[in-house]
Specification:
With 128 residues, this protein is mainly alpha-helical. Helix content is 71%, strand content 0%.
């Protein structure tokens, strides 16, 4: 007889999470390009929400047995930590931020509304 499973407890499909993350990364790069006629607000905060969604999908990929709530809270803690890290400026981290991939991951300037955009992107992933 198979062991009892908790309701709503499942194992994440890593392939699905990897594909979703790749699609969101592509959408995020398109979103931040000049190809889409977006307002500055949508371009800025939509891109931040998509970045946080990728963080959520990455943690979902890594921790396939963790609850969605745990993945969301971990993702939010990580995203907010990266944002708060933008208050720290030293030559070594500013050199990383000067590299395009470093800028995409670490950002450069602390901005309180980014925290809300991250929460929105992670909530989108959790509800999906």
């Amino acid at each position: 007889m198979p062991p009892l499973q908790y309701p709503f407890r499942h194992h994440r499909n890593r392939l699905l999470y990897a594909l979703a993350a790749a699609l969101v990364i592509a959408l995020g790069l398109l979103w931040r390009s000049s190809l889409l006629p977006l307002t500055h607000f949508l371009s800025k905060y939509g891109g931040d929400a998509l970045w946080a969604l990728v963080v959520f999908l990455t943690f979902g990929f890594l921790f396939t047995r963790a609850s969605t709530l745990r993945i969301a809270l971990l993702s939010l803690a990580f995203a907010w930590s990266v944002e708060l890290l933008q208050l720290y400026h030293a030559p070594w981290i500013d050199a990383l931020r000067a590299i395009p991939i470093g800028h995409l991951i670490l950002g450069s300037t602390f901005n309180v509304p980014d925290l809300l955009a991250y929460a929105f992107g992670i909530a989108l992933g959790a509800f999906a």
